[in-house]
Design goal:
This protein has about 140 residues and is α+β, with helices and mostly antiparallel strands. Strands 1, 2, 3, 4, 5, 6, 7, 8 and 9 form a nine-stranded mixed sheet that branches. A hairpin with a 2-residue loop joins strand 7 and strand 8. The protein has two domains: about 80 residues, Sandwich (ATP Synthase, domain 1), CATH 2.60.15.10; about 55 residues, no CATH class. Helices cover about 20% and strands about 40% of the residues.
């Protein structure tokens, strides 16, 4: 069985990215869901949150979305995002790292601008946690 699938990320009226992926995890109404090769057909509504994927080259990628739709059919996944936030769009300086908990209130009550800011904060927090874990692992390896 094939272990990868085609993944396309689009905005309304605009094709953005195409990957051959091993997996993708995306935000849905009931929580985060994942797609892997061979998955049963699925159509899901995406909520504001993080999209993470692993490419066929084992490269981890992170995006943010304010919502949209996801479909998996015949080993092809399509993500139609209301908006897409890439890591290059973020200010990753220390003063922008959110402190405390980020609470997600019902996205239906949020404006598009509020959704984008919420998702940016989620991305910044995830990236800082990931880099902190990587740094502490490297430090631990050096001391051994």
């Amino acid at each position: 069985m094939k272990r990868t699938f085609a993944l396309t990320i689009t905005l309304p009226g605009k094709h953005l990215l195409t990957f051959e992926a091993r997996n993708v995890v995306l935000p849905s109404k009931g929580g985060y869901i994942g797609f892997m090769a061979g998955r049963q057909p699925l159509l899901a509504t995406m909520e504001p949150g993080l999209i993470s994927l692993v490419t066929v080259e084992d490269r981890y990628m992170l995006f943010g979305t304010t919502g949209g739709f996801a479909e998996m059919l015949d080993n092809q996944a399509s993500l139609l995002c209301d908006s897409l936030i890439e890591v290059k769009d973020l200010d990753l300086s220390e003063e922008n790292v959110p402190t405390g908990k980020l609470f997600n209130r019902e996205s239906i009550n949020m404006s598009e601008t509020q959704k984008r800011e919420y998702v940016k904060q989620l991305m910044i927090r995830r990236l800082h946690k990931t880099s902190a874990v990587g740094t502490s692992q490297k430090t631990a390896q050096k001391t051994e």
